[in-house]
Amino acid sequence: MKKGYVNFVLHSHMPFIRHPEIKDALEERWLFEAISECYIPLIEIYDNLLKDNIKFRMTMSITPPLMSMLQDEYLNSRYLNYLKKTIELSEKEIVRTKNNKDENKVALFYNERAENTLKIYEKYDYNLMNAFKKYDKLGCVEIITCSATHALLPLILVNREAVKAQIATGVQSYVDTMGHEPNGIWLPECAYAYGIDSMLKECGIKYFISESTAINYASPKPRYGTNAPIVTPSGVCAFGRDMDSSYQVWSDFMGYPGDFNYREFYRDIGFELPMDYIAPYINENGIRIDTGFKYYRITGTGENKEIYNRENAMNKVWEHASHFASCRHEQINAASFSMDKPPIITCPYDTELYGHWWFEGPDFINAFIRKSAEEWTEYELITPTEYLKQNPVVQCSSPSPSSWGENGDYSVWINPSNHWVYRDIHKCEEAMVRIANTYTEPSDLQRRVLNQASRELMLAEASDWSFIIKNNTTVDYAIKRINTHIERFMRLYEDITKNTIEVSELEKMESTDNIFPKINYKIYANN
Asked: Entry's PANTHER family (predicted)?
């Protein structure tokens, strides 16, 4: 009998980046890259594990914006075109590199990979949620939800109705896609604050994933630290992140992804080859961007890079996966001696790390799952729901406010660079509550305005925008998104309060920001 469990959790999220009004939106490529590099490779891995009768249990959050985009006909059509262009480029790369044996080997690998990606995409009828719903139904992957637009809940807690609306809409969106209620939720950025648990309870949530500090500094102090869940006074359980397993992947100094045999992220032919050759495969406006064709391995800290060797990288994957499994085996052995219940190690990561930033990441997950299924391990993979069914007695403790961001607090999302965001959002939240309480029996047209106002507010609340501003990446885009949604909200607010609704403008907003088709503005009303 196994002595304990490992709860491997992948958090899958993309902000709502659907732009039919723009011919070749750069930001839509964020989604396309994640589909090719992260989601489809994971689907292939899960399918192969099932085919090989490997017993496994995983937990995956898929946020409402990502679920919506994965099922969107416009975006799926755009992705299919992107994928076909990738295949076309891979064929040209085989020809271009024919005189360099090592580069040509990589080009052939990319071609085979792209062709296989298309086959998997076709297999699931150009809708990847078909695959994830299958795994959820089979019980090998527990899909959990998130707040509606990945809003950092503690920072909008000043208006409790806004937090409740985010949670309730996240749950409803999940039900609309998955066909059943979610048991768990990924709190955006693992950010927790007092009072959030009671709202989770109201929405039927049974557990959430938290940062280690939420558990280690909980009151009273949990007996087993992060090796067991705790239950909040409201009756919702919290599974805390294990830091040992986290460092082995995330650490800049000791993390596996930094191994010199793995693929170098920052060298892409989109920036290196002549424009007349690469132009059809980058942005239509001539902006150089990543194509996904990267020929070098990390090699070292200098500028000189050696050609990527896929076989060597795969050898390292198995070496690292074996090490990771051995460490969890030792952790479980050590923890089980002093516990009167089986320990559980919770290992949460961003899905997009595995495949996008760490190209070999999905292969690592595959190798780890297969190693975990071997007889020598003292643990099994498990989901939080299964663990709670087997171990229903949980220590009651109040988690400490925290996040998994820098410093363990909320400072990444509210600081001198972005604090203005929340001043404007809070005003909109107050206005939304006001009109939700005012229009108790709206006309059909008023209802549409109120529902669209809810969408625009939630899209403005997304934590992605303040994160981007703090990290100084695509700042102009983030600021534009915040201001656009706030402006649209205020326009709708003015239209309904002054009875000056312009149907054409409303239809345009509904067509562009078409997330949450079943949203009900009354979730903002005071109960």
From this structure: 1,4-ALPHA-GLUCAN BRANCHING ENZYME RV3031-RELATED (PTHR41695), 1,4-ALPHA-GLUCAN BRANCHING ENZYME TK1436 (PTHR41695:SF1)
| 238 and 150 within one domain | yes
Taking only the tens place, the pLDDT of each residue in 48-84 is 999 999 999 999 999 999 999 999 999 999 999 999 9
Q: How confident is the model at residue 396 (pLDDT cuts 50, 70, 90)?
A: very high
One domain, residues 421 and 402: no
Distance CA 26, CA 289 (A): 9
- Judgement on whether residues 227 and 142 belong to the same structural domain of the protein: yes
Query: What's residue 10's pLDDT?
Result: 98
Please check whether residues 498 and 392 belong to one and the same domain. Answer: no
Under 8 Å between Cβ of 39 and 143? no
Nearest 10 degrees: Cα torsion 66, 69, 70, 74: -170
Q: Same domain, yes or no, for 186 and 43? A: yes
The whole domain housing 478 covers 413-524
Q: How many C-beta neighbours within 10 Å does residue 253 have? A: 6
Q: Tell how strand 58-62 and strand 4-12 pair up.
A: parallel
- pLDDT tens digit sequence for 474-515: 999 999 999 999 999 999 999 999 999 999 999 999 999 999
Average pLDDT score over the chain: 96
Amino acid at 466: S
Lowest mean pLDDT among 187-201, 223-237, 297-311: 297-311
> Which residues are bridge partners to 191 per DSSP?
none
Question: Could you tell me if residue 102 is inside a domain?
Answer: no
Q: Which among 191, 115, 185, 181 has a CA at the least distance from the CA of 153?
A: 191
286/57 Cα distance (integer angstroms): 44
Looking at the domain assignment, is residue 40 inside a domain? yes
Amino acid at 439: Y
Domain boundary pick from 363, 379, 407: 407
Q: What is the pLDDT of residue 459?
A: 98
Is 302 a member of any domain?
no
Same domain, 255 and 348: yes
Phi, psi of 12, deg, nearest 5: -105, 115
Number of domains in the chain: 2
Q: With contact defined as beta carbons under 8 Å apart, do 36 and 118 qualify?
A: no
How is 336-363 classified by DSSP, letter by letter? HTT-SS--EEEEEEEGGGBTTTBTTHHH
Q: What number of helices (H) and strands (E) belong to the chain?
A: 20, 10
Report the distance separating Cα 496 and Cα 426, nearest Å: 19
Assigned domain for 185 exists:
yes
